[in-house]
Design goal:
Layout (H helix, E strand, L loop, with lengths): L3 E7 L5 E2 L15 E7 L36 H7 L8 E6 L5 H14 L4 E5 L4 H11 L6 E4 L4 H11 L3 E5 L16 H18 L3 E5 L12 H5 L2 E6 L6 E9 L7 E7 L2 E4 L18 E8 L2 E13 L7 E4 L3 H14 L7 E7 L11 H13 L7 E3 L2 E2 L5 E2 L4 H10 L4 E3 L6 H13 L8
Parallel strand pairs: 4-8, 4-9, 5-6, 5-7, 7-8, 15-16, 17-20
Antiparallel strand pairs: 1-2, 1-3, 9-10, 10-11, 11-12, 13-14, 14-16, 18-19
Helix pairs in contact: 7-8, 8-10
Amino acid sequence: MPRATTNFRCTECGWSSIKWVGRCGECQQWGTVVDQADAAAPVVRLRPAVVPAERAARPVTELVGDDVSHWPTGISEVDRVLGGGIVPGGVILLSGEPGVGKSTLLLEVASRAAQSGQRVLYVSAEESVNQVRMRASRTGALQESLFIASEVGLAVILGQIDDIEPALLIVDSVQTVSSSLTEGLAGGPSQVREVASTLIRVAKDRNLPVVLVGHVTKDGSIAGPRLLEHLVDVVCHFEGDRQTALRFVRALKNRFGPTDEVGCFEMTGDGIAEVADPSRLFLSRTRQAVSGTCVTVSVEGRRALPVEVQALVVKSTTPQPRRVVNGVDSSRVAMLLAVLERRAGLALSSTDVYVSTVGGIRLTEPGADLAIALAVASAYRDKALPQHLAAFGEVSLAGEIRGVASAKQRANEARRLGFRTLLDDSTGTVRAAVDRAFIKASDDRGIPEF
């Protein structure tokens, strides 16, 4: 009889080890290596199976492809992210921080679908039916074709699907549903894998669109095995600061559409509302020019968003000056401060620098480098930039301003909002941009308008 050996395997990527380690040697995740007893069995050669004629491989030129038909949800911002709507038989995974508004958004999607005459089954494994009913009453999502169930057993959920035969299934959330065929507690790697695989198989067999809600870890990644992201068709992330009303939905993976779109929403007392034109949400409303502010135009997917960057520079009272950022990359700001001191002659090494964005948006693209540099220079000199000035461009370590993608789209959006002066890669260097911006501040004829 073969002797059983103890094997330790990573639940995320499948990496194995003969001894336990705290960190996976392949995916570098902590706490994912678990003990797994594997019985040594003789190797059996797998025999080739007889392939039926209808399943035989054919040349790709003989195959007839079906166009993917999207089913609009009735919420334009959701349709924008999904590439036109929900695809029948597609499985969508929506993740986000607790309390950010995932359930509220999906209840609105379910209400719009039920309003159009479709049967919708909303399975809440975390809340009771009365709690969901109260939210639906508050947000105006009461529809006759919207069915609510509070179940944590996978077998019961499958029975509900057979009885109701919905056109849309929403499970909130996949980590709280368990299957009796798999050992372990709900939310464990084996349970999440079994539940997701079963629901995906049901979606493909019935051509039923399924939306799964996923929990996130402390670092913002989706909890559970990484296999979950590979099984589904679309992975969306719902993000936003719970202290503000603005929310964003981004597509991290989409087999039926683009992954560079973003949907904007606003949390209100009556639920969640889509923001069709968020251009003015990230600009301050002061009528007078204030030092330390500069407007840039960021591109999110096919949408250009003007964002105001604010900076504050004060003399440091500590041996180690503080660098505090909000909404921008801290390492990027540290690099820009070094470039400003070396290339533009600003003595920032003995000052505390604070950089933030307006409205809670996060700037991750390098196109905001020039606006950050101008905002810091304005705060350092305590001199306001013109209110009709916008800037975008990537700043290199040599102090040069490089061009960014979608420059024409950014310029058109700035012009639409009334910004008459533009600083971009045509300015040359960051020193020239700083000098020309302050020339413009003192003399409107310093920089040609566009």
